[in-house]
Write a structure and sequence with these properties.
single chain; 93 residues; mainly alpha; 2 helices; 63% helix
Length: 93
């Protein structure tokens, strides 16, 4: 998504301060990065799936799922970073 497609909050006198918004988004981005690291560390090994089927399909599904989770976390991190950039741009204007 581009900056124009994301809901970037407006930094103004009656709203949440730009510094607070930046801090909150940086915290959220760091948490997503930590979640991505934790999910990547989860063991997905054939020994844990071979009793479910003999074709390897269960392992394939587990690997596909983990990849899907990591991609979604990466997408969220990208979106939050884009919003943060939009907040920064307003503060600099």
């Amino acid at each position: 998504m581009t900056l124009n497609e994301l809901p970037v909050p407006a930094v103004h006198l009656n709203g949440t301060g730009g510094s607070a918004l930046c801090r909150e988004y940086r915290t959220a981005i760091a948490a997503l990065r930590d979640a991505q690291t934790a999910c990547a560390a989860v063991t997905v090994h054939g020994r844990d799936y071979y009793t479910l089927d003999r074709t390897g399909e269960a392992l394939d599904k587990a690997l596909e799922h983990r990849l899907s989770v990591l991609r979604r976390l990466n997408q969220l991190q990208t979106e939050m970073s884009t919003i943060l950039a939009g907040i920064h741009a307003q503060r600099e204007a």
